[in-house]
Write a structure and sequence with these properties.
The complex is a heterodimer of chains A (342) and B (321). Chain A has 13 helices and two strands; from the N terminus they run αααββαααααααααα. Chain A has 342 residues and is an all-alpha fold. In chain A, helix 3 packs across helix 5 and helix 11 packs parallel to helix 12. The chains are: A mainly alpha (342), B mainly alpha (321).
Chain lengths: 342, 321
């Protein structure tokens, strides 16, 4: 059996769940973290719940397998991997646009296959808008998550080594940071995607390359401070190796900044992707793409609004939850180091 | 002072070289010249045609310096051309890029300068007001609204604004541009309003923290103790001292006024540098994109040097070292 796209994504889901359980156990063991997360839940219960809902929908769309479902009649579609969300809506396609809960097609007024069965209507290809919108949750989380997985380790690697070892290495890292910071973000992003080719991975890679500098600067500054701490000096005096000091004493003290940065970076990444989608170089299936496509639909007469509205609202609610959580996380974990404009 | 400026400029030059090296890696090493040629003239172009196109656009030379081609290679050529501002012709339609830049900078500035002035002015005024009401319901509501405003994609601001103000209320035309100022303001009003709206949320939050940090300083308490009114404290003491950190962020944005606003220009049909970049993306125009990134970072580095110098002029506490 060859490993295909949907197998990889299933494995990633399993890995993510395993990591979540592991992190959960670590948090339970640590008094400070447990207190912080409990306080977070008490301060922003709605935001936590909303984010949990998005993650759940995203996970439902990440697990997929091949196999026909009951309403499927199309022979080609039967051999494509379908996620749980797809299975919930299988066979619910129409010819083209239809209004929410309508019984007829929007343009030629012929009866629908599923009269009244599309709570958010259908789009130009006849897909159920509710289904497309739900599938966007996975894309948004993928953009924010995958990019952070690229940018944060990169920033930590450069920031911590530069801050810890200093001297020549610090000069070099500082120079690279200044070089990247001097290129206008959006233009650099576009140039990277055009040069790397247009795919989900290259969009995330480009977003990662353009967004690591901010956190690199923060982690470098913090490492400079941590390096002079008494316990680090003591460890060094006892002959603990530099690598071990970094992993045991420096990195754990940067973890709260990692979490805050992740939350604060996330909304910026998703917003950038929306702009990229409009430029035609975004990720397929994102809410940004739905908004970009719907731009022309608003200028039609009569107007088609049921495509842009759900995409805009789901995007807005996700970012709102993330922004509130990010602020709360910063207040709970670290009120001083990370400033407003990352 | 002179030694500081010289050192600052020298480091800036070094970063310019770093940017050029990065662009070289991105556009000449990571991308294949054959692919660029095929994207420009078509997938099925004959090999001779592709070769001729590569000769015309300077993609025919070897990529790296080698003993036989120490000066005659794309690395040296790329650095030489960019540093002498000889940007060559567009990969998409053979128009001179320098002429495009000259034509586009006017319309771009006519959009970005009013946007910048109004944006900074309005957000400083509003955040001063919010800081004045710190700790009250007004403050809380303003912060809440800022987070709401930050969570909306700029696409929605533009589409919503065009729809509401342009289509329903019909206050201003939805898009277009004119080179005579008497007509142009009519077209520019809507993008400026929408542009200001879209940055207001994050700006108010940022300036508010700056002001509030300043409000709890000792000298403000002293000013109150000697009997200065709240109005005078805010305007004469807090605002003037908070202007120093604000200046750094604001001056930093000035260089980007020249490169225009990609989204606003493309949406509103303003023929500036943002529209030019937009066309370059749609047409796989690598040379224009390259030039825009280079010019953008050039302005940024220049702006940074100016910021550092102006910083020392405004704040006498900073000693040049």
């Amino acid at each position: 059996m060859t490993l295909e796209g949907h197998h990889v994504s299933n494995l990633v889901v399993v890995a993510l769940l395993a990591i979540a359980v592991w992190v959960w156990r670590l948090v339970r063991q640590n008094e400070v973290w447990r207190g912080a997360f409990r306080q977070l839940g008490r301060r922003r219960p709605v935001a936590v719940a909303v984010l949990g809902l998005y993650v759940a929908v995203g996970l439902l769309d990440s697990v997929s397998w091949i196999g026909s479902s009951r309403a499927e009649t199309d022979a080609v579609a039967a051999h494509k991997p379908k996620s749980i969300i797809d299975r919930m809506f299988s066979g619910r396609t129409e010819k083209s646009y239809s209004k929410p809960f309508d019984r007829v097609e929007f343009y030629d007024k012929s009866p629908l296959h599923h009269p009244g069965g599309h709570p958010l209507g259908t789009d130009i290809l006849g897909r159920d808008v509710l289904q497309v919108t739900l599938k966007g949750a996975r894309v948004a989380l993928l953009i924010g998550g995958l990019t952070s997985l690229i940018a944060i380790p990169l920033a930590l690697l450069f920031g911590v080594t530069a801050g810890y070892f200093g001297r020549r290495l610090d000069d070099i890292v500082f120079f690279v940071m200044s070089t990247f910071a001097s290129m206008p973000g959006m233009l650099l992003l576009i140039a990277l995607i055009i040069a790397l080719g247009r795919s989900t991975l290259s969009v995330c890679l480009a977003l990662g390359i353009t967004s690591w500098v901010g956190f690199c600067r923060i982690s470098r500054g913090e490492t400079l401070k941590l390096r002079e701490m008494d316990y680090v000096q003591a460890a060094r005096a006892m002959g603990v190796s530099e690598v071990r000091i970094i992993f045991r004493h420096v990195l754990p003290n940067l973890m709260h900044l990692v979490i805050i940065t992740f939350a604060l970076m996330f909304s910026g990444l998703v917003l950038s992707e929306a702009v990229l989608s409009w430029l035609g170089i975004g990720v397929d299936g994102s809410w940004g793409q739905m908004i970009a496509q719907a731009k022309d639909e608003l200028s039609r007469e009569p107007m088609i609004w049921w495509n842009i509205a759900p995409a805009g609202i789901t995007l807005f609610v996700l970012l709102l939850a993330v922004n509130f959580l990010g602020d709360a996380l910063r207040d709970v974990l670290d009120p001083r180091t990370v400033r407003e404009k990352l | 002072m002179i030694a500081y400026v010289v050192r600052r400029v020298a480091y800036g030059m070094l970063i310019v070289l770093g940017v050029l090296l990065f662009l070289y890696l991105l556009f000449f090493v990571l991308t294949n010249p054959d692919d660029i040629a095929r994207k420009a003239i078509g997938e099925k172009a004959l090999p001779q045609v592709i070769h001729q196109w590569k000769v015309n656009h300077g993609y025919d030379k070897p990529r790296f310096p080698s003993p036989g081609h120490l000066r005659d290679n794309m690395l040296v050529e790329h650095f030489r051309r960019m540093l002498t501002f000889d940007f060559g012709r567009s990969d998409a339609d053979d128009v001179l890029i320098s002429r495009r830049l000259r034509d586009g900078v006017g319309p771009s500035l006519s959009l970005t300068v009013p946007l910048f002035i109004m944006g900074v002015g309005i957000s400083i005024l509003l955040s001063l007001l919010v800081a004045f009401f710190r700790g009250t319901y007004i403050d809380e509501a303003a912060v809440f609204l800022s987070v709401l405003a930050m969570s909306v994609s700029i696409l929605l601001y533009i589409i919503g604004g065009q729809f509401l103000i342009g289509k329903l209320l019909k206050w201003f035309p939805i898009s277009g541009f004119d080179r005579s100022p008497a007509v142009a303001w009519h077209f520019l009003s809507l993008p400026v309003i929408i542009g200001v709206m879209s940055i207001l949320g994050s700006d108010i939050r940022f300036y508010r923290t700056v002001f509030i940090e300043e409000i709890y300083r000792d000298y403000v308490r002293t000013a109150r103790a000697k009997g200065a009114g709240e109005m005078r404290v805010m305007l004469r003491h807090v605002l003037r001292n908070a202007l120093i950190p604000i200046l750094t962020t604001v001056v930093m944005e000035i260089p980007f006024l020249f490169t225009g606003s990609l989204l606003l220009e493309a949406f509103f049909g303003i023929p500036g540098l943002g529209s030019m970049t937009f066309d370059a993306i749609q047409g796989n125009d690598f040379s224009t994109l390259r030039t825009m990134v280079f010019i953008g970072s050039l302005f940024f580095i220049l702006g940074q040097i100016l910021t550092d110098i102006s910083y020392t002029l405004v704040d006498p506490r900073i000693r040049l070292e």
